[in-house]
Amino acid sequence: MKTLIGPFAQILPMTGLSLKGALHDEQLTVIEKGGVVVENGEIIAIAGYKSLLQKYPDCEIAFQDTPLVLLPGFIDCHTHICYDGTRNRDYAMRIAGKSYLEIARAGGGIWDSVTKTRIADLVTLTENTVARANRHLKEGVTTIEVKSGYGLNLESELKMLRAIQQAGMHTPATLISTCLAAHMKPRDYTGSEEAYLQWILTELLPVIQQEQLSNRVDIFIEETAFSAKAAADFLQQAMQQGFVATVHADQFSAGGAEVAVNARALSADHLEASTEKEIALLANSDTVAVVLPGASLGLGMLYAPARRLLNAGACVAIASDWNPGSAPMGDLLVQAAVMSAAEKLSTAEVLAALTVRAAPALQLKDAGQLLAGYTADMQAYPTADYRDILYYQGKMKPALVWKKGVLV
């Protein structure tokens, strides 16, 4: 049965926009007093409400009697929401002036989350992931990438990926898993970084493939994690095994984005330390530049150079990096709105970075736009003017969210 939803004060379908480079608000298509026809979780038509009433007279009507602005559901293409415990002690030390290395020496950092997540059982991790995914969903995020990387051994990495898979069965949100066993070399591994990465390739990834837990790998390229050379070799071999790649790149030092581009990774994420060299490489590639304002807020760092990336011609997506350490807030819209003021990003650029431009980072062909044939993942804000969404700096949340055409 077809359902006509509307009328909406405005619909922003996010169609007809270039995937790369700067955008101006005048380029946004705005359908005034529009509606959407959905059937079996898919968008059938989108147009003026009155014209849809005439064209589909037998539709079931889902009438909206308050002014609302309709957008595609947001796509968060970089999160770490499968974990247990908090790192509140780390945060207290950080805002008191302690450095990253000082916190790590005191038992904090990624290894603290590894220790707590290894102890947690599958049920706990699944429930934690479902709860965070559902919170994201209520805030308009309908598709969520979720990384492992707090296990760092065979049993715990598989436990995390199984938890993500099971969580996907208990939340309406779409969860897309990524193996981040190459988050750091675990402290209890005595071999070299090359040996550890080879262990992932030969022992862990085949099991992940066998259980169909993920088809994505990620690696953290940084002085405190893995070298550019070792990462390049790892990505090449993982992709030969059939995995697609993304990279934690240029967070504290440059070099990772170049590896990502050379490997034809789907995305290079972080980029706070990217120089003009990395910006140019990303702009001249198909690798999505994913900026993570939540990490900048949590660490008290400068934002990634989103404005310069866009001006150079890159495809820029914005993701939350929701994790227990550097980005515990997990509020994608707040982060994007605050960053937009600092980096001078237009409304069109921000909304595209959360929808149509985030989709390629996850190889999504039917999400990020409101278009016939696309999945009916939608959110509606309680306003008659789309500019209010960023004006209230993320405080305005969607009044209604639909996942595959179902109001959730």
Summarize the structure.
This protein has 15 helices and 16 strands.
Structure description:
Pfam families: Amidohydro_1. It is a single chain. This protein has 15 helices and 16 strands. It is an alpha/beta fold and 408 residues long. The chain folds into 2 domains: 3-72 and 368-407, Roll (Urease, subunit C, domain 1); 75-362, Metal-dependent hydrolases (TIM Barrel). Strands 1, 2, 3, 4, 5, 14, 15 and 16 form an 8-stranded mixed β-sheet that branches. It has an 8-stranded parallel β-sheet with strand order 6-7-8-9-10-11-12-13. The longest helix has 19 residues, at 193-211.
Question: Termini separation (Å)?
Answer: 18 Å
* CATH class placement of the largest domain: Alpha Beta
The CATH architecture term of the largest domain is Alpha-Beta Barrel
Give the radius of gyration.
Answer: 21 Å
Within CATH, the superfamily of the largest domain carries the name Metal-dependent hydrolases
Largest sheet: 8 strands, mixed
Average residue pLDDT? 97
Q: Enumerate how many helices there are, as a single number.
A: 15
- Structural domain tally: 2
Question: Stretches where pLDDT falls below 50 for ≥5 residues?
Answer: none
What descriptive keywords fit this protein?
408 residues; alpha/beta; Urease, subunit C, domain 1; TIM Barrel; 2 domains; eight-stranded mixed sheet; eight-stranded parallel sheet; 16 strands; 36% helix; globular; HutI; histidine metabolism; iron; Amidohydro-rel
